[in-house]
Amino acid sequence: MKPAADRDSDGVRKEPELADSGIMFRAMASASHDFPSIPGLEPITVIGRGAYSTVWSARQSRPVARIVAVKVLDADHLGPEPLARFLREWDALARAAGTGVASLLDAGHASDGRAYLVMEFIDGEPITMACDRRSMPLRERLRIAADLAGIVARIHARGLVHRDLKPSNVLVHFEAGVPIVTVLDFGLARIEGVGLDDAITLPGTPIGTPEWMAPEQTGLLDEPIDSRADVHALGLIIERLWLGRPRWARDVGGKDTLDQSLKSVVEGGFAPTLPPEVPPHWDDLSQSRRSALAELVAHATNPNQRLRLIDARHVETALLRIVDSPVHSSPVATWRRIAAVGLIGAVLVIPWWLPRDGSSDAVSTGGRGVASSSSVPGSLVIWGQNDDGRCTLPEDRTYTSAVCGPTWTLAVDDQGRVIGVGADGSPPLPVPGNLATGTDRVRAVATRADGAVALLEDGRVQTWGPMDHPDQEVTGVQSVACGRRSIVVVHLDGTIGLVAHEDGGMKSSPALTDVKRVVIAHKTAIAITGSGACFSWGSNETGITGMVQGVMVRDAALAGTDSRSTCFLAVRTDGSLWWAGSGPGLSGVEHARSWRAQHVVGAKLASWFMVEHVEGGIGLLGAVPKAVEEVPDLLRIGAQVRINVMSASTEHAAVIISR
Q1: 497 exposed, middle or buried (CB, 10 Å; 0-12, 13-18, 19+)?
Q2: Which end of the chain is more exposed for a tag (fewer CB within 10 A), N or C?
Q3: How far, in Å, CA of 478 to CA of 494, rounded?
Q4: Quick check: 477 and 458 in contact, CB under 8 A?
Q5: Average pLDDT over residues 210-223
């Protein structure tokens, strides 16, 4: 494998880079790829093949008529190891569900015993082909790459590392002329905290596609494969979109053996990407922006993973700043040195286009209003009642999680620090020191009536406030949900743990093993499994428990001020809304029958819902308080914005922008 210096006549290297050459083992599938008998599915054609499986397009006749993608485990790979990998992809798809990932619609075993996945069919083309065929200007290419980086950052926040990012696994399609990015193929994904990978992957096994690998993926280095491997692949994809050729080209089927290719990845050396002397015809950047882009690619693709950028969100923000922000007269002059996390005596040089940490001026909006109007990914848009400062947060930070309490807001920035505002200094403020400083990095926060819970990056749970706390340390957690007093955790193995319960209800939980998350309102809880099935327990005063059992959903939420007003709103797999229960939280839902939604969240201790629409933006349903009923302009239905996190409470709401 050598640097890919050769180009076609139009300056674009074509099909070899799009070959589906992802590897895990040296042997490839060679036997039956026939489509099995699956009720309601009629095969159309093969659209992809991997080491152990075949992907088909198919017509689905029920529950709705549509074209879907069906991934089927090959008949000659029915042993425990391929099956374990296939089922891991099942789990990874369920965990990654959301904007930018093809929806998992169904899964199971065919009559011949082969496992299968039914997924949303994306009628798109590889990211490089989508840009090249349209001679897309570089600015537009980089905005698409920023969308991709935002999706990867969201996947990482869910505890996943893709490990096989490449152009053929990133599709772009267009809706009303707007490019939409979708990441495919989680067959090599690693799930944080799940030991399956260590059990079925031998030491020294290469993981990924050589042309798009980070050195640690070759199996030739004793280094962990974590989110930095995906950042490395992002850098190579960005470089390819810019220069029109991949960095590496492997003569597949020629003289390059796999061993030689892997060795080239490790020994190829590190020459920082430099702006080309003759830019491609699509390069519409100024020289200073071009230099900044070269620096970003160099930081993202550094072969020394300890010196590489560690956060895909930084890549996203940097790309948007390069494309859209005013350029400093001398980017180099504005660099500053910061200590590199995990390094002793080393420093990283961070250019102007990367997000900064440090203090900032918070924006106060008085009694009501929007505390931020930025649409930059990671921006926290928060609006509603603000007489106690609950909507006053630093604007120049990048946020990854936020939750609204009755009179306060807690947010987590990209350094894993918790920021709390509002509550007039009452619990759960102030935030414990280890969480406020990032000594213990936080992944997400949840809130109770006058207490809070932090889910740490290492899977531990920390509670604070005057309410009851767990008697022993809670570890191995992938998600956490809170009611007024209750704390329910979902462990990495998909089981539910009841850390604290409500008085008079929810003193036990169902014995499930595939739960991805739980939603709670008052004394009612609903668990959502990896396949999208719902299971409810607790109070049933509005009849929810019996109505929602086994219902298949894309997302679901509960809202209500007490047991008699608790109601359920779900996004079905086709994007339509479905509801159960009664009370003010369901007022006005009839007019929303035509909505097509991505996600939904219920307001904390209140009777209203916030819904993210497929076409972008949010809508509000139920007994919406006056303080929040006027949605900020950049979040209105149809706005070209995607959302990473939504949260709401009695009189304010918060949204974190993903793109």
Answers
A1: middle
A2: N
A3: 8
A4: no
A5: 86
